[in-house]
Amino acid sequence: MTVITRFAPSPTGLFHAGSYRTALFAYIFAKQNKGKFILRIEDTDKERSKKEYEDNIIDSLKWLGLDYDELYRQSDRTDIYKKYIQKLIDSGHAFISKETPKEAGDRAEVIRFKNPKKKVIFNDLIRGQVEFDTTELGDFVIAKSLEEPVFHLVNVVDDHEMGMTHIIRGEDHISNTPRQILIYEAIGAKNIPIFAHIPLLLAKDRSKLSKRHGAIPMTEYRERGFLPEVLVNYMALLGWHPADDREVLTLDDIVKEFSLDRVQKGGAIFDEEKLKWFDHQYIAKLNNDEFQSHASPFVPEWLATSSPLFKRCIPLLREKISSFGEIPQLLADNGELRFVHGLKDYAPLSLLWKKNPKREAALVHLQKVQELVMAIPDDSFTAESIKVAVWNYAEAEGKGDVLWPLRMALTGQDKSPDPFTSAFILGREETLNRIHLAIKKLS
Question: Could you count the other beta carbons within 10 Å of the beta carbon of residue 72?
């Protein structure tokens, strides 16, 4: 048997984390079994379905690396559903029901499934044996007319026609399963798919994460500079975990390790702070060229990512950010790396260390540091070499007395990186220029 799974979103809103996790589990299971993964756009709700939402779903899956083998739209399959509806009516499994409209615009007739009112039992790969008494469901609607089928009917027909072997979907669909099994039986399906209902994704308040509550579009994470492989890694661990304690896993790792019997039954909380932690781990592993490439869309125009100045910023940025979208804030006018853009004017008194606010002392220390920095060759001008050159003097004279004036001279900011890192970023020539300017201010 070739394993076939599907992801069947309705294009009635932007693609969010809850939908993505469902798609991811179905994709992983198919790939693990060397099977087929199908994308099916369930757009029978003509009023709410929009092309922009379908495009967003397809764009998001592409960005996140979930390649589907086939693509279908239910709006293209109306004739197929019509054939099945007529077959069910002819066989006595469905009937045209005369309705009493309760409100203006309600239909005077619909097509209902004739419920055999029996117990339905199925084995869920996550929840075990599930039993339903379908009597309480009554004769449920499967179409508004021959040309207007509804969810339960189209869902079953498509899964049957497409040879679906496994239906992996959210646990909120468990209540739909008995109706759908009854329809499978009525259309004469020889093989009913195996069901696996995965736990819901929850917001921090433990309510269901949804388009209307707490979920943001996946493409927004792209706009905020998160790496797609991070979303894959983090989302796979929401409701599932590998046999060991590893957290940082590639998609290939996940495909090898994944098993539905390790999927938990309880809901999993989507925590953006944890997502940021994952992104930081991945950023730390990027080489400089990869970092530069990912950072490029987020770096202001005044700082070319190909410039030596930006390349000297990379180690600090790598340490500071949890997504590439945080770079503009660091480089903004009130950001920690504002000094990279240029030195803002500052008052001479701000060069004085608060515990020893003597102009003469600050001036002497800056002059000595200038001398020590000048002795460092340009080709070995690193944060470490600067620290080695200055540290003994700073310890002897007082670290605050020496390093505070140096930090302020280089950055003009109360909050900035340590002076050795700042000097390295600026480079030898600009570092000496700024120290010289500070000496002039104090002279």
Answer: 18
Please give the pLDDT value at position 180: 98
**Which residues, other chains included, contact 166 with Cβ-Cβ below 8 Å and sequence gap of 6+?**
3, 4, 5, 26, 29, 125, 193, 194, 195, 196
Over the stretch 235-262, which tens digit does the pLDDT of each residue have? 999 999 998 889 999 999 999 999 999 9
The token pair at 331 is 């480089």
What pLDDT score does 438 carry? 98
Structure tokens at 422: 């700042």
| Domain contains 143 | no
Tell the residue number behind the tokens 């029996």, with chain if given: 118
Locus of tokens 């040309």: 147
Find out whether 274 and 201 touch, Cβ atoms under 8 Å.
no
d(CA 207, CA 228): 26
Q: What is the DSSP string of 179-215?
A: HHHHHHHHTT-S-PPEEEEEPPEE-TTSSBPBTTBB-
Residue range(s) defining the domain that contains residue 434: 348-442
CA distance 301 to 34: 46
Q: Decide if 295 is inside a domain.
A: yes
On whether both 312 and 406 belong to a single domain, the answer is no
In a domain, 247, yes or no: yes
* Helix (H), strand (E), coil (C) string for 232-293: HHHHHCCCECCCCCCCCCCHHHHHHHCCHHHECCCCEECCHHHHHHHHHHHHHHCCHHHHHH
- Terminal Cα distance for the chain, rounded: 85
Q: How far apart are CA 154 and CA 172, in angstroms?
A: 18
| 57/168 same-domain check | yes
What DSSP letter does each residue of 63-122 carry, written as one string?
A: HTT---SEEEEGGG-HHHHHHHHHHHHHTTSEEEEE---SSTT--SEEEEE-----EEEE
Residue 94, beta-bridge partner list: 113
List, by residue number, the catalytic residues.
211
Contact assessment for residue 116 and residue 182, using Cβ atoms and an 8 Å cutoff = yes
Q: d(Cα 427, Cα 308) in Å, to the nearest integer?
A: 9
Query: CB within 8 A of 343, min separation 6: which ones?
Result: 411, 412, 434, 437
The DSSP call for residue 303 is S
Q: Which of 134, 219, 209, 147 is nearest to 177 (CA)?
A: 134
Asked whether 135 and 70 are in contact (CB, 8 A), the reply is no
- 316-351 pLDDT, tens digit each: 999 999 999 999 999 999 999 999 999 999 999 999
User: Is the Cβ–Cβ distance between 410 and 419 less than 8 Å?
Assistant: yes
